[in-house]
């Protein structure tokens, strides 16, 4: 038998798909192949496919028809069954109730008259009706909802009479099903609100409340749906007084009974109801819910949900709306949970602040950016258009959320929290107590969510609260955190070697995936305690004067007053300050030097900046992904840590600069860097920085004075008036984002540059001066096409052949004309301002000066590249002269200069007296003219630094700090920027300084004895000439508030620190804000602020006026240039007169040497790097006459001493000192 036999003898059908006849195929040659792609074959295939598709569709239609018929039959059968059950239920109710025509009338009559249904005659009858009801109930039908209302009333009456019948399992399950249907019924009426629906909602709520008393454990299993429906009802329903009471009872229904599922109910309450808008406000939760709520269980449940449930973490961070409402409602409940007693358990307070920390960290950026945005509906129609646009582009926080969040930073809230948590600090016998950990997390989160002035206030309240706490050993809480911090492994390892900081920082930032969850948790605990101490101590040293800071050292003792005692208890002995600084130095060095290593993994999802920075320690988990919620970049945490460390280091260094309690070289980190190639490396980084900045849009500073409102004279009013139109919050955010990107690029390409800007004292001063000069040299080369010599540059410019289309002259000639000026000797500053102010940063290029004497004749002079040095020194001498009538600057008792605080007030007063009206273009232009003069003076000082000319000018230290800390820092700008201190005030007003110290340490009643409020009186001088005294002046005054409504706020013992801080800030910064900003703006146009940030105030003074150390005669002699008869011969032998000169100079004391140096160079101090860097070089030539009776003379513009050919040392000394002391100069040559 054939193997292919199928049991069918019928011949199989032959199908030909080739498209050719079978006979034709037989006749093909062996070398020919059939055409499989012929049209015939394609048609046959398509037809077969179409037929197959058609058969498939027919089968699907047949199956669908069968399914529809079967479904409809099932549906019809169920409907008939339900209708039968419904009819049976209705018949039973009609039979046991008063006569009614139908069930609709029964339900209407029973529900509308308010009497409700009758109780059932027996528990069995009630149970039977319950089962029937659950079988047919359809909550979408209005009649079924009425039946549910009717039965609910009857059920309650029946079970109230026989309460024990509902304890069995059969009853429990049926009641649980009833509760679920009731919840859905409530949801169905919540969205379409009518009077009938309101009545039904009230009945359903009553039934739910009743059921929660019977089966609380089972109902808690449906708590998520339960509270979700309640939230919908409270949000969209019209809540009457009666419904409000029922809703409040329903909210508490699952929370009050204590069962195994109560925590589940609290979790659902928090994640479903508290995340919806205004749910608590609509039921007056402060009196209905909060007093009866177990707040500890709520916070415990939510903390567990956040730590263990990934979905909860996800919506917590992604759903901003829900997260913010949860935060606000928790704050609200916490405030009202125990009424006015506030007698919270410590554990409850700890759980509360842990929960708030997580929520605040999750929405930190949202809160920071929106908390102060003005509601669009509240914007005045007369305000600026850009302010309105800002409000439209950024939605403000809802009023309830904003009010609740702002309560967190009130003094009562922070100090009260500190007092509660302080109990655990006081009772802690071991380090790392729960209370201290929670406090650290919460305090640090607050300072980051509320930056700026609010952060300072938070630190003040934290410090005030911590200063009042005492541990079990009797020390203050700040010292408790300090002793804990210095005992941690992190502190000790980083203090030993800065290289140990990198792996520790990587684990802190969540970059070390190899660390176990347990080890990471311990590390995070140590970091949080360290960071809290740094925050508290940073604020503490800001409010200390030098004596308070050194109270633990050898420079005196602190006051014994109450406030002074707090400061003394917060100060560290100098030995421990040294320990702290070593730790901070190594940590900061690693943060800057190894910045690139700490930025890895930013492309991955990581913990949020604040959550990772302070964050909740991850729970133990076998999965690293689940151990930490990976959400956003950790870069924010790194930057914030660096800000904090940088600010504290600079604060301590500034104090050391004043009092010098550390040895020379203590601050240097040069041993950690290859200094042999440091300068070339920094210069290369500077070049890369310029490349990175290519294409960046620079801010237009020319309109910085636009919008000035002269009506608001001085202070914050004037400042806001002309800055508000430009510095809207939206534009500030865009600028910060752009700046952050640019600075991050800088970190990657220029770590040395970053250290020089933010922590320059790590590098020797001499090295920084060399770098400064090298930066200027490179800038000159870039601007001048590689040509440095002024005469050569002018020649190259003059040879330019392109024509300026505006003037028709060669462009080079236009440039040279703009850089040439004829300066009146009698009015040097005004003449220079009129001709050079329009140059802007073009003043960097060489200028040509022709002096015009009092007779209108041009002066002759030696042009060593122009008399630029004479020009610049003359301007500074005239402008800073105390007798100068403009009085742009004034001097203190030590003759240290600073911008005249009353100049703007005085100027505007005179303009008004002259008839100018406020808020006019004329007044605006006049005020801008004054500020432009300050700006031009800043350019002049910058030009002196740029050209290397030393000037005999000494500025106040606090003013020089503004130079060093304005614009020079990068990411640490807020923390290391200038912050006025009491000690800085001493340079401005010694009498005011002593008065503030008295107020600070006063033991009595400040309010009664001083009678101060939060206002300040600014005084200024205006001309009041009399016939006898044409230069007479009169003192005027104006009172300004230090804070909003300051006149109504008295200064008390409690707010005394805030008053002192505000007063110091006003005197040192706000009062002269415009003058200082204009000066610094001009200075920055010539010298980049980043270059100035490499120096502190004393170093800047040395950079301006030279070194105050003893004059080195050998160095001066080596770098002196001789001309005329004094030129050295081939044998390098000096002229006899020259030998006498050096002998005489060597025999002089340092004071006389300085007089001689000032006589020749116009400054009594030597260049910082020696006389080899004096520009021009110190020069001596013969005076052209042999008469020894002549006096020596000078040309200070080229540092030239014209020395007659004296043959006697005694005569030379007498003549030289006489010329020096009498001021002989150019006219005697």
TrEMBL record:
Residues 42-54 have a biased composition (Low complexity). SMART domains: HECTc (SM00119). SUPFAM superfamilies: Hect, E3 ligase catalytic domain. GO terms for biological process: protein polyubiquitination; ubiquitin-dependent protein catabolic process. Residues 1-41 have a biased composition (Polar residues). It catalyses: S-ubiquitinyl-[E2 ubiquitin-conjugating enzyme]-L-cysteine + [acceptor protein]-L-lysine = [E2 ubiquitin-conjugating enzyme]-L-cysteine + N(6)-ubiquitinyl-[acceptor protein]-L-lysine. One of its GO terms (molecular function) is ubiquitin protein ligase activity. PROSITE patterns: HECT (PS50237), IQ (PS50096). Pfam families: HECT. The keyword Transferase applies. Keywords: Transferase, Ubl conjugation pathway. Its EC number is 2.3.2.26. Residues 694-706 have a biased composition (Acidic residues). The keyword Nucleotide-binding does not apply. Residues 843-1229 form the HECT domain. It is an enzyme of class 2 (transferase). Residues 1-81, 687-713 are annotated as: Disordered. Pathway: Protein modification; protein ubiquitination. PANTHER family: UBIQUITIN-PROTEIN LIGASE E3C. This is HECT-type E3 ubiquitin transferase.
């Amino acid at each position: 038998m054939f193997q292919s036999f199928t049991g069918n003898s019928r011949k199989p059908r032959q199908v030909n798909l080739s498209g050719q006849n079978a006979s034709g195929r037989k006749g093909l040659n062996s070398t020919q192949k059939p055409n499989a792609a012929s049209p015939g074959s394609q048609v046959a295939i398509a037809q077969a496919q179409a037929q197959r598709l058609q058969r498939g569709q027919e089968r699907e239609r047949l199956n669908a028809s069968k399914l529809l018929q079967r479904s409809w039959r099932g549906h019809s059968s169920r409907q008939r069954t339900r209708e039968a059950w419904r009819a049976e239920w209705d018949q039973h109710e009609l039979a046991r109730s008063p006569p009614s025509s139908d069930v609709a009338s029964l339900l209407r009559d029973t529900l509308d008259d308010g009497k409700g249904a009758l109780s059932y005659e027996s528990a069995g009858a009630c149970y039977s009706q319950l089962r029937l009801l659950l079988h047919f109930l359809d909550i979408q039908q209005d009649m079924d909802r009425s039946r549910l209302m009717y039965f609910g009333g009857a059920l309650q009456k029946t079970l109230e009479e026989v309460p024990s019948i509902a304890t069995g399992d059969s009853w429990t399950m049926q009641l649980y099903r009833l509760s679920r249907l009731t919840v859905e019924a409530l949801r169905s009426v919540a969205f379409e609100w009518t009077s009938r629906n309101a009545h039904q909602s009230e009945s359903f709520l009553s039934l739910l409340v009743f059921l929660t008393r019977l089966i609380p454990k089972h109902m808690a299993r449906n708590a998520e749906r339960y509270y979700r429906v309640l939230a919908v009802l409270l949000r969209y329903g019209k809540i009457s007084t009666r419904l409000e009471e029922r809703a409040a009872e329903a909210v508490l229904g699952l929370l009050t009974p204590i069962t195994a599922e109560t925590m589940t109910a609290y979790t659902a309450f928090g994640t479903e109801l508290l995340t919806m808008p205004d749910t608590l406000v609509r039921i007056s939760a402060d009196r209905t819910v909060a007093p009866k709520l177990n707040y500890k269980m709520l916070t415990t449940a939510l903390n567990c949900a956040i730590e263990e449930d990934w979905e909860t973490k996800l919506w917590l961070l992604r759903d901003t709306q829900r997260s913010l409402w949860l935060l606000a409602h928790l704050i609200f409940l916490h405030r009202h949970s125990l009424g006015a007693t506030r007698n919270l358990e410590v554990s409850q307070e700890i759980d509360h602040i842990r929960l708030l920390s997580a929520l605040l960290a999750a929405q930190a950026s949202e809160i920071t950016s929106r908390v102060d945005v003005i509601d669009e509906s509240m914007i005045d129609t007369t305000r600026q258009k850009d302010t309105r646009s800002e409000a439209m582009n950024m939605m403000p926080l809802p009023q309830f959320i904003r009010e609740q969040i702002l309560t967190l930073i009130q003094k009562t809230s922070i100090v009260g929290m500190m007092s509660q948590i302080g109990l655990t600090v006081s009772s802690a016998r071991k380090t790392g107590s729960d209370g201290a950990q929670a406090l650290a997390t919460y305090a640090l989160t607050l300072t980051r969510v509320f930056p700026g002035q609010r952060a300072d206030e938070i630190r003040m309240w934290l410090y005030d609260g911590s200063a009042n706490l005492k541990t079990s050993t009797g020390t203050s809480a700040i010292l408790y955190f300090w002793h804990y911090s210095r005992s941690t492994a992190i502190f000790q390892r980083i203090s030993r070697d800065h290289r140990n900081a990198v792996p520790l920082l990587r684990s802190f930032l969540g970059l070390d995936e190899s660390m176990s969850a347990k080890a990471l948790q311990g590390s995070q605990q140590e970091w949080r305690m360290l960071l809290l101490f740094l925050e508290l101590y940073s604020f503490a040293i800001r409010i200390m004067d030098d004596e308070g800071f050194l109270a633990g050292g050898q420079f005196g003792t602190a006051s014994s007053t109450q406030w002074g005692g707090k400061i003394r208890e917060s100060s560290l002995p100098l030995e421990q300050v040294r320990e702290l600084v070593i730790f901070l130095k190594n940590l900061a060095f690693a943060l800057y030097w190894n910045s690139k290593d700490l930025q890895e993994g930013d492309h991955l999802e990581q913990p949020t900046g604040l959550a990772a920075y302070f964050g909740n320690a991850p729970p133990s988990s076998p999965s690293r992904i689940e151990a930490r919620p990976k959400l956003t970049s950790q870069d924010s945490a790194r930057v914030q840590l660096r800000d904090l460390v940088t600010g504290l280091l600079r604060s301590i260094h500034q104090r050391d600069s004043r009092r010098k309690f550390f040895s020379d070289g203590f601050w240097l980190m040069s041993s950690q860097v290859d200094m042999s190639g440091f300068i070339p490396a920094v210069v290369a980084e500077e070049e890369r920085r310029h490349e990175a900045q290519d294409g960046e849009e620079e801010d237009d500073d020319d309109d910085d004075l636009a919008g000035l409102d002269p009506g608001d004279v001085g202070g914050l009013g004037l400042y806001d008036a002309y800055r508000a139109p430009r510095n809207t919050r939206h534009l500030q955010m865009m600028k910060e984002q752009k700046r952050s990107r640019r600075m991050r690029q800088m970190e990657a390409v220029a770590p040395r540059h970053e250290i020089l800007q933010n922590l320059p004292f790590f590098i020797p001063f001499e090295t920084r001066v060399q770098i400064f000069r090298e930066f200027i040299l490179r800038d000159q080369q870039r601007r001048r096409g590689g040509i440095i010599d002024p005469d050569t540059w002018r020649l190259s410019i003059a040879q330019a052949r392109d024509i300026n289309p505006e003037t028709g002259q060669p462009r080079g000639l236009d440039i040279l004309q703009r850089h040439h000026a004829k300066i009146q000797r009698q009015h040097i500053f005004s003449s220079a301002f009129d001709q050079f102010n329009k140059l802007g940063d073009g003043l960097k290029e060489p200028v040509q000066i022709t002096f015009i004497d009092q007779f209108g004749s041009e002066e002759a002079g030696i042009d060593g590249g122009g008399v630029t040095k004479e020009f610049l020194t003359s301007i500074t001498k005239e402008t800073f002269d105390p007798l100068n009538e403009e009085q742009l600057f004034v001097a203190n008792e030590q003759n240290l200069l600073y911008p005249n605080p009353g100049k703007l007030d005085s100027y505007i007063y005179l303009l008004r007296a002259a008839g100018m009206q406020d808020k006019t273009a004329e007044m605006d232009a006049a005020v801008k003219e004054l500020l432009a003069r300050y700006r031009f003076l800043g350019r002049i000082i910058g030009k002196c630094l740029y050209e290397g000319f030393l000037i005999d000018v000494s500025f106040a230290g606090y003013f020089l700090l503004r130079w060093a800390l304005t614009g020079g820092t990068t990411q640490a700008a807020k923390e290391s920027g200038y912050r006025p201190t009491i000690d800085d005030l001493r340079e401005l007003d010694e009498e005011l300084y002593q008065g503030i110290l008295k107020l600070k340490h006063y033991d009595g009643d400040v309010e009664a004895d001083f009678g101060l409020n939060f206002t300040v009186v600014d005084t200024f001088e205006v001309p009041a000439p009399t016939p006898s005294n044409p230069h007479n002046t009169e003192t005027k005054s104006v009172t300004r508030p230090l804070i909003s409504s300051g006149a109504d706020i008295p200064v008390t013992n409690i707010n005394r620190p805030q008053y002192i801080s505000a007063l110091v800030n006003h005197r040192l910064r706000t009062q002269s804000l415009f003058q200082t900003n204009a000066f610094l703006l001009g200075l920055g146009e010539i010298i980049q602020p980043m270059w100035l940030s490499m120096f502190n105030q004393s170093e800047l003074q040395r950079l301006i006026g030279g070194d105050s150390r003893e004059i080195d005669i050998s160095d001066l002699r080596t770098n002196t240039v001789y001309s005329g008869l004094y030129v050295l011969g081939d044998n390098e032998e000096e002229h006899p007169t020259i030998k006498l000169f050096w002998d005489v100079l060597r025999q002089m004391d340092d004071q006389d040497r300085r007089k001689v140096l000032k006589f020749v160079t116009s400054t009594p101090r030597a260049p910082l790097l020696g006389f080899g860097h004096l520009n021009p070089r110190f020069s001596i030539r013969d005076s052209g006459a042999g008469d020894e009776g002549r006096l020596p003379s000078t040309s200070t513009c080229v540092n030239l001493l014209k020395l007659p050919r004296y043959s006697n040392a005694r005569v030379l000394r007498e003549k030289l000192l006489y010329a020096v002391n009498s001021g002989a100069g150019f006219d005697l040559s």
